[in-house]
Amino acid sequence: MAEVGRVAVRDPGALLPGGFWAAVAVWLERPQVANKRLCGVRLDARRSVGFPRAEACGHSPITGPQQEERAAARPCLRSLSGGLGPGPSTGPELGTAGRGPEESQPRRPQGEDPREAAAAAQLAGCPGQPGKAGVREGDFPASDLDSLWDAFSRSLAGGNPEMLAFLTGSRAGSQPEAPSELDVVLRTVIPKTGPHCPLAAPRREIVVQDVLNGTVTFLPLEEDDRGNVKVEMSNVYQVRLSQSQEEWFISILIFCPEKWHSDGIVYPKPAWLVEELLARLARWSVESKRSGFKSTLSLISIIKYSKTYQMLKEKYKDMVKVWPEVTDPEKFVYEDVAIAAYLLILWEEERAERGLMAKQSFVDLGCGNGLLVHILSTEGHPGRGIDVRRRKIWDMYGPQTCLEEGAITPNDKNLFPHVDWLIGNHSDELTPWIPVIAARSSYGCRFFVLPCCFFGFTGKYSRRQSRKTQYREYLDFIKEVGLACGFHVEEDCLRIPSTKRVCLIGKSRTYSPAGEGSMDEQRTQYINSRRGRPMSPPGEAPAPPPPRAALGRAGHPDGPQAPDAEAAKGGAEARANQLWLSGFQPREKAERVRNCATLPRDFIDQVVLQVAHLLLDGEQLNTGSAPSSSSKAWNRGGSLSLAEVARKLDRGTLQRLKRECGGLQTLLRNNHQVFEDNSPSTCCGPSPALGPEATTGKNPR
């Protein structure tokens, strides 16, 4: 047994020892935050057990009412999805979306016993309860944890006092200070798979957490040729929290450092444990922020996702080489591959839950480059994409990928009654409408949205409170829309190279099909309320439609009357074309360039000359050297602030520039060969290197 690393932790916020267990929960449940060669983990089972010696004497794991009684008096580590601990790290693996509201952990009162503080800080909940993903995989049944722990406990009592002392953080042969209750977790560590990855098989571990003694021990499992599973003693390591003279320390210990075997993935070198893991644990332990988002890939099987993602990445990686758009090919290709992998696993698990055989159909609203539609269609899901503007890359996909150019407006003509899923991948102004369109298309229609830009029903989203980040508030708004439309809305974090990686999913309804009529009235009331119109009381009819909805139902009162059938048909068409909420503006078909580059040349020259004359007529700048007697005096011009220049220009010119996303400053920066822009508010005269002719547009010879 050897201590390979130790670091002192400054705790000005009095967050320890609770903060330590929050940091441990990150490494337990999301080790990929620190070890980028991992895809994630699956928590298969969790048990509360007694001290190993008691187990060896024939006591069973604590279950039933006894477990509930002791759980109420003991700390159990809280899941990071529940909020304790730091947010996810920044980077392509996790992005920066994990930072949520700045909420602090409870502070420890002065004089409180650290062990009691650890318990009090964690009584709110337990992390990583065995999820459906673990049950579905079936690689390691949860019942195996009991037999594995029983066998391990007997081996400790039967002649391994060193491991027993290591596990309890005490000297060999000594008893622990008090009978400890241990939290034992069985987890499967999933490495990233790839052609250059030497280890693709998941590895399994037992994690033993002793809160009262401040230790968490990782016991790797190995399977022999006959299928017997036991603890692999060579790679056992422990993270320990200790206190000495009011100072806290976090240490990493290895049971057999001379036998440590590093595979470079699941088990890195001891130096990595000290330099990377120990440093992160120390930092996370005293961070007062907590995540306002779910953990990554919390709704699907990580093992299935990892395999599917690697398969799709290999299959579609050549798209990067032939990408014809001006956007970054690696970002967009691999982001869409990751989204496609997520949807494929989500839909596969949905088919298993519902007993379906046919693959789900879909429509991607605002599909952009169409790559997501192409991947999903190629993988066997019937569907199409719709976008207001055609992209160059659409012609490369082939006829099997159905992409349509057209604007989607929220009305009765843009419903999809025979489609299973509606997708909104960075769908901008359509994002809040997709749950509404899905709800009104059919009772069985579901939705998946990945919000990016912040749009409301009729334009840019307006914030209503400042306690949350704008991103978190917008996600809550889209979730509110889904709930108002009658969906059970679930949230998950994707593993994509983006800061906006939280998706919202509506798979089921909160009402029965018989309640569709009253539910649609509530939708209408909610949508009208978001525009500022007063909501109708529950049970009353929604507000009458705008007058244009009645067009076609009758002719001019002085003219001939249309037949009843024709009037009914005209009225139905008018109602179908009527917007659900007036004021919605679809995206323009032509992408506008608004950086002053498309302004008329004579207008640009006029403004440039006008500003140049203002600078040349002003007080000249001191060049720092006396002019030569043989050369003509050089008028470098003066210096003016942008505000001073703007006051000299007429109102029509300023308004025309203001519509170009930057205005006067953008135009002057575009003409950097004439002007020097030393600060955001300063405009200097022409550069001496260009000669005085540059101010008049003449080329010096």
From TrEMBL:
<dbReference type="GO" id="GO:0141101">
    <property type="term" value="F:tRNA(Ser) (uridine(44)-2'-O-)-methyltransferase activity"/>
</dbReference>
<feature type="compositionally biased region" description="Pro residues">
    <location>
        <begin position="535"/>
        <end position="548"/>
    </location>
</feature>
<keyword id="KW-0819">tRNA processing</keyword>
<comment type="function">
    <text>Adenosyl-L-methionine (AdoMet)-dependent tRNA (uracil-O(2)-)-methyltransferase.</text>
</comment>
<keyword id="KW-0489">Methyltransferase</keyword>
<feature type="region of interest" description="Disordered">
    <location>
        <begin position="78"/>
        <end position="139"/>
    </location>
</feature>
<keyword id="KW-0963">Cytoplasm</keyword>
<keyword id="KW-0949">S-adenosyl-L-methionine</keyword>
<feature type="compositionally biased region" description="Low complexity">
    <location>
        <begin position="562"/>
        <end position="572"/>
    </location>
</feature>
<feature type="region of interest" description="Disordered">
    <location>
        <begin position="529"/>
        <end position="572"/>
    </location>
</feature>
<dbReference type="Pfam" id="PF07757">
    <property type="entry name" value="AdoMet_MTase"/>
</dbReference>
<keyword id="KW-0007">Acetylation</keyword>
<dbReference type="GO" id="GO:0005737">
    <property type="term" value="C:cytoplasm"/>
</dbReference>
<feature type="region of interest" description="Disordered">
    <location>
        <begin position="677"/>
        <end position="701"/>
    </location>
</feature>
<comment type="function">
    <text>Probable adenosyl-L-methionine (AdoMet)-dependent tRNA (uracil-O(2)-)-methyltransferase.</text>
</comment>
<dbReference type="GO" id="GO:0030488">
    <property type="term" value="P:tRNA methylation"/>
</dbReference>
<dbReference type="InterPro" id="IPR011671">
    <property type="entry name" value="tRNA_uracil_MeTrfase"/>
</dbReference>
<feature type="compositionally biased region" description="Basic and acidic residues">
    <location>
        <begin position="100"/>
        <end position="116"/>
    </location>
</feature>
<dbReference type="InterPro" id="IPR029063">
    <property type="entry name" value="SAM-dependent_MTases_sf"/>
</dbReference>
<keyword id="KW-0808">Transferase</keyword>
<comment type="similarity">
    <text>Belongs to the TRM44 family.</text>
</comment>
<protein>
    <recommendedName>
        <fullName>tRNA (uracil-O(2)-)-methyltransferase</fullName>
        <ecNumber>2.1.1.211</ecNumber>
    </recommendedName>
</protein>
